Amino acid sequence: MERFFLRSKHWNVFLLFFITFIVVIGLFYLALTYSQDTIYTGFAMAIGCAGSLSLLLSWYYFLNHGMNQKIQDNNLKSSSNGIWFFIIFPVVYMFLAFLVFPTGFVLTTTEHNFHIWWIALIFPIHLFAVFSFFYVVYITAKSIKMAELQKDAMFVDFAGEFFLLWFFPIGIWFLQPKINRIIEKKN
User: Fold this and answer.
1) For helices 38-70 and 168-184, angle between their N-to-C axes, nearest 10 degrees
2) b/e for 25-60, b at 16 or more Cβ within 10 A?
3) 5/14 Cα distance (integer angstroms)
4) Which of 75, 85, 68, 66 minimizes the C-alpha distance to 136?
5) CB 3.0-4.6 Å disulfide test: which of 40, 93, 118, 153 passes with 145?
6) How far apart are CA 166 and CA 164, in angstroms?
7) 120: which residues sit within 8 A by CB, 6+ positions away?
8) 142 contacts 148 by C-beta, under 8 angstroms
9) CA angle 27, 134, 93 (to 5 degrees)
């Protein structure tokens, strides 16, 4: 899988994400249209969203790992193993959130089942999941820039890569050719 993400052309990676998106949307449609049970709907959405997020975060992980191998100075390399928790946490959170809330995160004050403790529980967990996602994007963008420059990079140096990774459907078209050039370059 790492070889695919590091050596594929931009359209191959885009096509993989696009097909996955279509399959997940189809799964959502089938679950919402033909399922009368919210448990099955929640499970289908949990599998679809967590699977899609896993694919995206695995792309980030393999980019980070591959770029770290191209950085010659060992002091600059980030630990690819150190981001595992930050990759797994949002996926597990997404999966469990759709199982617990199969119809989505709809909390209203007009219904009788409104409980403030749901917000008190979900809010910090959700914020940490968002932080984890952005941390993985940050580390991956920094690794790409350090592999390109072969020196330490500040955020202003890799802000472009950060935003291209964040907006990945567009970013794939610009980042993947750069990644291919870095990978093909001999040390």
Assistant:
1) 30
2) eebeeebeeeeeeeeebbbbbbbbbbbbbbbbbebb
3) 11
4) 85
5) 153
6) 5
7) none
8) no
9) 45
Give the length of the chain. Answer: 187
pTM of the model: 0.84
Token pair belonging to 42: 């929640």
- Cβ neighbours for 11, distance < 8 A, ≥ 6 positions apart: none
3-state DSSP of the chain: CHHHHHHCCHHHHHHHHHHHHHHHHHHHHHHHHHCCCHHHHHHHHHHHHHHHHHHHHHHHHHHHHHHHHHCCCCCCCCCCHHHHHHHHHHHHHHHHHHHHCCCCCCCCCCCCCCCHHHHHHHHHHHHHHHHHHHHHHHHHHHHHHHHHHCCCCCHHHHHHHHHHHHCHHHHHHHHHHHHHHHHHCCC
Q: Is the dihedral of CA 134, 165, 49, 25 positive or negative?
A: positive
